[in-house]
Amino acid sequence: MNSEIIKYPFYVTVHPFNGFWELKYEHSKRINLIISFIILFLLIMTNTLSSQYSGFVVNLYNPEEMNSLMEVVTVIVPVMFWCVANWSLTTLLDGEGKFAEIFIATCYALTPLILINLPWVFLSNFISLQEATFYYLSQSLAVIWFIFLLFIGNMTVQQFTPSKTVLTILLTLVAMGFIAFLCLLFFSLIQQIIAFLTVIYQEIVFRY
Question: How many C-beta atoms lie closer than 10 Å to residue 25's C-beta?
Fold first, then answer.
């Protein structure tokens, strides 16, 4: 893996139109998938380090109660929900993006959340309450930058107009909520079935 491939997420971050176009039509899908998984891993590490080592002025979490597994879930689940919902909708709306391309574009769009938030894990330990404004401003900038890249990436991958891209994103968010509801319903049903079988087992054991 050469240096140009490693540097490419930075190029996409500052040149999104050309960057996402080249991702779709010119770059190797296998290499892009590897980089995408690396970006996801780095975002998980960034969130974990932020929860554990950010300064007390801005850290809303108790480091002793931090669950690393939840840090993984809060990154992986929204990304997968987004990709599944977006792919399902854009297939119906004549989009040109494949599932792998949607996943790659989404992961590359996450780059600002790493570039901006990771240095603040260290810097937040040296700021006062008044200076915390810069911390929250930087986090807001990272989110806005991510949303912009996600918009451009989705528009490029699907070859939609800006207005159709906005509509697609809104419908995707609704679909993500529906998927989340179905997942909660499924796990609730499984939990009730397990509880029911447990009660039956206990009845049989105690009776005989």
Answer: 9
What's the pLDDT score for residue 208? 61
Tell me: pLDDT of 70 over 80: yes
Task: Measure the CA–CA gap between 3 and 62, rounded to whole angstroms.
Answer: 38
pTM: 0.87
Nearest to 104, CA basis, from 121, 92, 86, 116: 86
Residue recorded with tokens 């840090």: 71
